[in-house]
Amino acid sequence: MIHSTAIIDPAAKIAADVSIGAYAVVGEQVEIKSGTDIGDHATIYGPTIIGHENQILQHAALGGAPQDLGYKGEPTQLIIGDRNTIREFASINRGSVKGGGITRVGDDNFIMAYAHIGHDCVVGSHNVITNSVSLAGHVEIGDQCNLGGFSLVHQFTRIGSFAFTSMGAAINRDVPPFVIVSGNYARSYGINKIGLQRKGFSDEAIDAISKAYKLLVRKRVPRNEALQQLEPLAQEFSEVKLFVDFVLSSSRGIVK
């Protein structure tokens, strides 16, 4: 299962059924769990833990040192969950000490070619991160997001679950859950209605999310008044509560 030209550090922990392609490099303090395939010329440095049944294609670069001028060689970490697909030339860096020391990627993500996930990022599950998306350090991505090709996300920015970013979006403020953003710098263009329908959201829930979006993002309604109007909906729909809580917790401000 391991090609004869692969370079594997003797201290690496590799499950018996892991496949490693030609000229791949696996460094020390790397753990790769069962069912994972590593492509030709991929490089994985540690400390890094890679979960079960991941597909890591050729030339992917995982677990490299953070691109942080303050990094001094501390033993920070990358943790990747299960069943992720990481395509050609994608790169994911380890964390930094000042950011908590860990970069995390959840489960069932599809990370396409040339995408970059910077140090201390936290990426949820079931996300599509398309070609050449770049996440700066300390970015947080929820679940079920779709980031369009060449989207750029500023450090310390959050993108809420089920959000959608269009091709080339430059995002320097938080993107609330369920919202579509586009442009440089990004602006919001409504909720991700088609995406929510495809995910099985009810019409009632979508209407409730739309009302929350209009009151908190689009209309110039005083926030206290908007929250008062949304309180009954937040009690009825967990999606509205998620939206409201995200907006209220934003320290950078939200894309409008």
Provide a concise account of the structure shown:
The protein has 256 residues and is of the alpha/beta class. It is built from 4 helices and 27 strands.
Count of helical regions = 4
Shape call: elongated
* Major sheet details: 10 strands, mixed
Output the radius of gyration: 20 Å
What is the CATH class of the largest domain?
Mainly Beta
Major sheet strand order: 3-6-9-12-15-18-21-24-26-27
Please identify, by name, the CATH architecture of the largest domain.
3 Solenoid
CATH topology of the largest domain: UDP N-Acetylglucosamine Acyltransferase, domain 1
Can you say what the CATH homologous superfamily of the largest domain is? Hexapeptide repeat proteins
Overall number of structural domains:
2
Number of strands: 27
Distance between the termini: 51 Å
Structure, explained:
- By secondary structure, this protein is of the alpha/beta class.
- The protein has two domains: 135 residues, Hexapeptide repeat proteins (UDP N-Acetylglucosamine Acyltransferase, domain 1, 3 Solenoid); 55 residues, Udp N-acetylglucosamine O-acyltransferase, C-terminal domain (Udp N-acetylglucosamine O-acyltransferase, Domain 2).
- 19% of the residues lie in helices and 27% in strands.
- It is built from four helices and 27 strands.
- A ten-stranded mixed sheet has the order 3-6-9-12-15-18-21-24-26-27. It has a nine-stranded parallel sheet with strand order 1-4-7-10-13-16-19-22-25, with no helix packed on it. An eight-stranded parallel sheet has the order 2-5-8-11-14-17-20-23, with no helix packed on it.
- β26 and β27 form a beta hairpin.
- α2 runs antiparallel to α3, α2 packs parallel to α4 and α3 packs antiparallel against α4.
- The chain starts with 6 loop residues before the first strand and ends in a 7-residue tail after the last helix.
